Amino acid sequence: MMTIPLKASSSSPNTTKRPALLLHLVCAAALFSLIVFVIQSSFFTGNQKPDLNREQVRILSDFQSSIQQCVANRGLGLAAHIIDHCKLILKFPQGTNSTWYNEQFKIFEPLEYNYDVCEGILLWEQYRNMTTVLTREYLDVRPDGWLDYAAKRIAQL
Description:
mainly alpha, three-stranded antiparallel β-sheet, two-stranded antiparallel ribbon, about 55% helix, transmembrane helix, transmembrane, sialyltransferase activity, SIA1/STLP5
């Protein structure tokens, strides 16, 4: 059997450059990965929160508080839980059993319902814009009704 003698380890410039080069490559790859991650999260996740100013958030919060109070007074035991300025959940009281069975989907009706108030207001606004009839009486009572409002509404159609 033939053995190969081992060389004594010498600190040549070539061997000390390898770990430094490897460290630079790892850092560059990590930086590149971080940049790609930031770009993906900013472009592809979409805008999760609507762009609202403080006044709009205050109005939505007041509206949700009035919904919460109305449900508490007239909801026959339902409770409205506010999640944020747009979302709320209507829940039946604890211990309620679902007795309504949906024959089509073979499930019991849920005991809590999620609502997005912002989406509801947006849909209502779209529906209102589609169904408002531009009558002469309606436009006469608006300031600059014929000149300003009618032109904007007709342009939306």
